[in-house]
Amino acid sequence: MHEYTPEIDDLADDLVAFARARTRLDPIALDHPRTEAELRASCGPTVTPAGIGGNEALRLFREVLAPACLSVDYTKYLAFVPAAPTEASVLFDLVVGAHSIYGGSWIEGAGAVYAENEALRWLADLAGMPASTGGVFVPGGTIGNLSAMVAARGHAQARRGGNRPDRWAFLAPETSHSSVDSGALVMDADVIPVAVDDRYRMTGPAVAAALDEHGDRVAGVVATAGTTNLGIIDELSTIGPVCRERGVWLHVDAAYGGAGLAVPEIRPLFAGIEHADSYIVDPHKWLFAPFDCCALLYREPDDARAVHAQHAGYLEFLDAFGDWNPSDFAIHLTRRTRGLPFWFSLATHGTDAYADAIRVTIDLANDAAQQIEASEHLRLVVEPSLSIVVFERIGWDAAQYQAWTEQMMEDGTAFVVPSRHDGQPVFRFCYVNPRTTPDETASIIAALA
Ligand SMILES: *Cc1c(COP(=O)(O)O)cnc(C)c1O
Q1: HSE on the CB side for 396, CA within 13 Å?
Q2: φ and ψ of 32, to 5 deg
Q3: Which ligand 1 atom lies nearest to the CA of residue 145?
């Protein structure tokens, strides 16, 4: 064991103490963004030829920089999709950093990759996918969707004997996530929007009709299991069989909603997901893992390897040990073993604790819906789905929504931002933090009066 210098030794104590204190903070403050000019005035330049020293850099982070970042795990942070990583996962993230593991290949990261694969197996089993299923943790749903779409296109092109249409297209519900459009843009492909039914779901018959019209250039269908805005799950039970019959790749974007698979009472909402050729879920959203972590799974990992594995003379050595090289399954080569904090927390707490914690947040959403229905000034826009509640502040225009949000953020009393539904401004609560309480919901509702 080599000796720390006294400076690094002190710093180690301070850093570990700081991390420990942050994971135990209660209550957590929302904090507040600052302008670049404000930060420059408080911090000055920090990267200098001589260095400012670890103590000073840590002081600046603690006193200036960290408080200028919103705390996503603040219990009244209900905007977008927040995060609520477990202490076990966050602390293990420090260990992952300390360990210098290269997570791209089996030969270099076997033990870590084994553990990541255990966590991926749990997610594959939740979806009812076969034993062949495997994949990799990537930074987020955006890269996960793009990687799966590239695999789908490779599969479609191989099925056509290498022939490609003038332009490839993906079918996706009109409600699909912006990352599907962004992925198609990168691929120079089109997204053909499929109309949703009166419950905002894409259905099998709608997919079949779109395939009748455009089938000759469709590389895959991208369904959503839990839209980000409303929490809606497409009708996978009818979409799955249509894709299977026609031999079309089905990718399910469950970046947010996939966590719901762990809760037996709502598992039926996902029926049909077992037909997926690929699916993603972000543990950094509703599965209590730190950023950045998306699980990407393929029914037949060879389909992904065929398009994603990189080949070079200096990499051939790795292929000789090619049991399972995570780099082969997405758009990346070097990778952090970002699935390990999630794995460690799962191993620590057990999967039942996950189901319980997710259930708590679903209950929070249902409770919020009841409070909204009982109020005079708010109106539910749709029934809550998964852990999302969307509602209207009766009588407010878009400017009033915006002003209220800014005031609450300024005061540090809640982070709830306006969204849009059917062209109208709405508010939206997204619960992923089991430490949020119904009383906190009540305080936000009161502040909206
Ligand atoms: C959040 C989200 C994404 C994008 O995931 P990132 O991790 O932010 O890249 C994709 N699809 C859905 C449904 C999402 O909720």
Answers
A1: 21
A2: -155, 135
A3: 10
| Structure tokens that stand for 223 in this block | 């369904």
Classify strands 250-253 and 218-224 as parallel, antiparallel or unpaired.
Answer: parallel
For residue 322, the model assigns a pLDDT of: 65
Structure tokens at 173: 């519900």
Which amino acid makes up residue 314? Y
Question: Scanning the structure block, which residue is given the tokens 């795990």?
Answer: 73
- Write out residues in the chain with pLDDT < 70, as ranges: 322
Q: Looking at beta carbons, which pairs linking 308-312 to residues 24 or more positions away fall under 8 Å? A: 308/147, 308/150, 308/151
CA distances from 221 to 92, 170, 175, 215, 376 (A): 37, 6, 13, 11, 42
Give the list of residues 6+ apart from residue 32 with CB closer than 8 angstroms, or none. 67, 68, 70, 409, 410, 412
Please report the domains of the chain, with CATH numbers, ordered by start residue: 101-348 (3.40.640.10), 352-447 (3.90.1150.170)
Look at phi and psi of residue 53 and say left if phi exceeds 0, alpha if psi is from -120 to 50, else beta: left
Q: Taking the C-alpha atoms of 108, 154, 181 and 310 in order, what is their torsion angle to the nearest 10 degrees?
A: 30
Q: Nearest Cα to 58, choosing from 21, 100, 101?
A: 21
Check if 81 has its Cβ closer than 6 Å to any atom of ligand 1.
yes
- Alpha-carbon span 13 to 53, nearest angstrom: 15
**Dist. CA 190–CA 175, nearest whole Å:** 15
Q: Given the structure tokens 């962004």, which residue do they identify?
A: 182
Residue 129 tokens read as 């996918």
The finding on whether 253 has its CB within 6 A of some atom of ligand 1 is: yes
Under a CB-based contact definition with an 8 Å cutoff, are residues 429 and 368 in contact? yes
pLDDT score, position 314: 86
Pairing assessment for the beta strands 250-253 and 134-138 based on DSSP bridges: unpaired
| Element at 414 (helix H, strand E) | none
Q: Ligand 1 pocket: which of 270, 282, 286 to mutate (most atoms <8 Å of CB)? A: 282
